Model the fold of this input.
Amino acid sequence: MTDDMRVSLKVKDLTVYYGEYLAVKGITLDIYEKKITSIIGSSGCGKSTVLRCFNRMNDQVKSARVEGEIIFNGVNINDQDIDPYEVRSRIGMVFQKPNPFPKSIYDNVIWGAKANGMKENWDELVEKSLIEAALWDEVKENLKDSALSLSNGQQQRLCIARTIAVRPDIILMDEPASALDPIATLKIEDLMRELAKEYTILVVTHNMQQAARVSDYTAFFSLDETGSMGVLIEYDNTTKLFTNPSEQLTEDYITGRFG
Done:
């Protein structure tokens, strides 16, 4: 890893339990500022579980217990005195399926900003956020229309605009294109590359080709030798990980020997 890049998140020995079940153990890695980092691996290896730790979404699961450190701006966001809502205003989340609210396009964009008590020129914020999300030209004449009238791909970009409007430092994306057709998927990938000029992006994807296309760094997760919990196998520059992995398990996965 390169030492001259700024670290957005420093993850140290991250471990997650659901009740007595140990789901993920001992994850340690640095997430670099204004880069795209992909998390890949087979189903059930803890990719989304780890992603949700980064903005305290696992707090909403009663049985979840998160140990270890996630250092953001010099603070461990796992500390109990840290407000999870403040964390989520700085570290936004885009989910697998588009989840616009049954409101207008305009109201969807400003919803999070209003909920966080931001005082803005709302018209300017809507335009800026939709431009950044590559959606403005498609909806600028119809901002009062229901967000539910948009296509799936447009809805996902609207959800990205809603996230951007809160002005986060980091955007988490959990399989953001898995529910989209190939054309809409490419639009999301192009958008991710543009957004990485301003934001740190961390994306979970089952699509290895997508990880290879869009990400600067890739983390490969797998189940441990007992097949019961997720562990980090390898984390490196994306090109190196896909062309010259250090671990045999990584090579086996990316060449399709298992997964």
Q: What stands out?
A: The CA atoms of residues 56 and 84 lie 6 Å apart. The chain has a mean pLDDT of 94. The two ends are 26 Å apart (CA to CA).
